Amino acid sequence: MTHPYFTKARHPRILAHRGLAVGEGTGPMVWENTAGAFAAAHAAGAEYVETDCQVTADGDVVLFHDDDLQRVAGDPRRVDEVRTAELVEIFAPHGGLLTVAEMLEAFPETRFNIDVKTDAVAAPLGRIVAPHAERVLLTSFSDDRRRRAIASVLDAGATLRPATSAGRSSMMLMRLLTALRLSPARVLRDIDALQIPETYGPVRVLTPSLLRAAHRHDVEVHVWTVNDPDDMQRLVAFGVDGIVTDRADVALRTLN
Fold it and tell me: Catalytic pick from 17, 42, 132, 222?
């Protein structure tokens, strides 16, 4: 049965990768994973936003991809070493810091694809996501971490399991099984989407057999991270269900 996360939404899915952070000069004035980036994605018409979460020194679950602030802010400290109030100050000129709770409240119509970046996130995230499980997909490169985050949502009283996509080990097992023409049913149990790169190193992940097998089990296939319009059109023509992109505005013009 199709998860509510996918119902009454456009197909192909366009997932705004960390929002829409487009700017001029040496780098975007609005940073990724900020209120400004999400507002820009929403204004462009994106129904889905892909994001990431970390825990601060205060235990707040905030939207941030990296383990530390070096790439984004030139600060070598780990996110979990910095107080939330200080992060708010750092992010203020660049789109504004959001916690997961603030994100879900500020964008009540948006569907969120949340990557659980660390083990510390899983437990507190469950309490936050539980009231919004119908419009949240939880994922992680770690299948174990992903499962613990989902269990935390259900333990917090959610009546519906959030949608979920396979972790790295499940993704590669799925690729192997389909190459060998073996059933991936066990791997895809309780999986709603395969979110994969087209290739992973020298390995081609997206293949016709993988796509057919996923669709036979009512599992969507989303490819990341695709920014070229020709690639977007080619992949949708190939049969994928969604595109994760840094340029949701371009994807919406190209595909819809």
Answer: 17
